[in-house]
Amino acid sequence: MKAHTKETQAGISPDKAIALLKEGNERFVARNMASRNLLDQVSDTSSGQYPFATILSCIDSRVSAELIFDQGVGDIFSARVAGNIVNEDLLGSVEFACKLAGTKVFVILGHTACGAVKGACDDAKMGNLTTLLHKIKPAVRATTEPSDASQRNSKNSAFVDDVVRNNVLLTIEDTRSLSPVLKEMEDNGEIKIVGAIYDISNGKVTFI
Hints:
5-stranded mixed β-sheet; globular; 13% strand; 10 helices
C-alpha cells in the first residue's frame, strides 16, 4: 500500500476520509490489517506529506490512532494530550494540518475508562495536571445523571463513559468557537469536525 500523494489526497472528500478511518478500524478489529511496507512509505513521503485526516486522541498508551485506524506513514496527523482537550497550541497545530497540509477531517477521539476523565470526576489535583483536568470539568457538569453525588466518581464506569462522550462533544464545540479558521473550513464543506469513542475492551471505534 502506497503513501498518499497530492493527487490522492485531493480526491478524498470529508465523508470519504471518515469512511477510510471506519474501514481501517474494521480491519483492526478483524485482525486483517492492510499489507504495507512502512519503510517504503518513509521513502515515499521523504519529499512531502499528504495525510487525509487529523486525529486528536488521549495520551493513553492503548489509544494509538495509527494502529486502531490501521494507517501508515504519512496517512494521518496524530495529536495527543490527556483527556483529548483543545487549547491554543493544539488548535494551531490542527489549523496547520487542515488549512495548509490539506487534511479533510478533524476527529476528536475519546476512549472508555479514560484516566484523565476519571481524575476530573474525582477532582484530582497534582501540579499542572490540575489545570488540564479543569478543562474536563464542564463535561462532568454536563453529565447530569446520576444525580446522587456518591455515584458521580471514577468508580462508576457508566458515569465515566458518559462524561467521556460529553467531553468529546464539548471539545467539538470548543474547536468551532475557538478556531474561526476551522469553523470557516467546516462551513465551506472543506472539512468535517467529528467525534468518536474508542472502546479499550474490544478495539472498536464508534463515531458520534
